[in-house]
Amino acid sequence: MCGRYTLFVDQADLEERFDATFDEPFSPRYNVAPGQRVPVITNDDPETIRRLEWGLVPSWADDDAGGIVNARAETIAEKPSFREAYARRRCLVPADGFYEWVETAERKRPYRVAFEDDRPFAMAGLWERWEPETTQVGLDAFGDGSVERGDEALETVTIVTTEPNDLVADLHHRMAVVLSPDDERRWLNDDDPREVLEPCPAEEMRAYPVSTAVNDPTVDDPSLVEPVEP
Fold it and tell me: Where do the structural domains in the chain lie, given as residue ranges?
C-alpha cells in the first residue's frame, strides 16, 4: 500500500520535471499523510499542479466521510468506487519517496523507499469530485422554493497500488504504482492504460530505516528522511 510519502524537491525543479506550474506556492514535505491536501496533475488540466485531498470520495457517496487512500490496480476498471474515475479522471501524484512499515519483534519499523538520487517520480492516481446534495426549502404557502446547498464540493485523490518489486517485497506485499516518465502521459490520456500499472524496476531504488517519529503525521521535518540504525 501507500500510506505516507515525501516530496521535498524544489518547486522550480518539480515544475520543470513535470512541465506544469503550481497554482499556489509549494513547501517541501517530509511526511505527507491521508486527509491532507496533496499536489496532483489531473488529466483535465495537465499544465497545472493543484492540490486535492488524499482519500477518494466517490461522486455517488452519501457523504464525504471515509475517503479511500489506495486503489488496487487489478480492480480499478470494475470496482464501483473507482471505475468511473478510472475511465474519466486519472492523475499523477508527484513524490520523491514513500514509507513502508515492517513488523519486528518489538514494533513496526518505518523504511523510506526512493530512487538512489532522490529524483522525483509520479505515482498513478485517480481523482473525483463529490458534491453535496441540494435540497429545496420554503415550499409552504410563504416559501419561495429556493435551493439550499450544504457543504462545498470536494475534490479527492487515491493512489493506485500494485504488486511490489523485489526491493519493496521485503517490506510490504503492495506498493504504489511508480510510473516511468514515458508512461506518465499514457496514464493521463490513453483510453485503457492498465498495462502501465506494473511494479517499477528495483535496480535504481533503495530502502533504508528511518526514525519512528514518522509515525506521527503531525511531524514533518527533514530529520524524517535521514537514515537510522535498524
Answer: 5-214
Cα–Cα distance, 186 to 180 (Å, whole number): 10
Is-catalytic flag, 133? no
Global model pTM greater than 0.85:
yes
The CATH number of domain 5-214 is 3.90.1680.10: yes
- Given a cut of 70, the residues of the chain with pLDDT beneath it are 134-151
Selecting among 53, 91, 100, 200, the annotated active-site residue is 100
List pLDDT tens digits, range 86-138: 999 999 999 999 999 998 877 889 999 999 999 999 999 999 999 987 644 45
**Annotated catalytic residue within 2, 155, 184, 200:** 2
- Alpha carbon distance 121, 5 (integer Å): 12
Our answer to whether residue 2 is catalytic in this structure is: yes
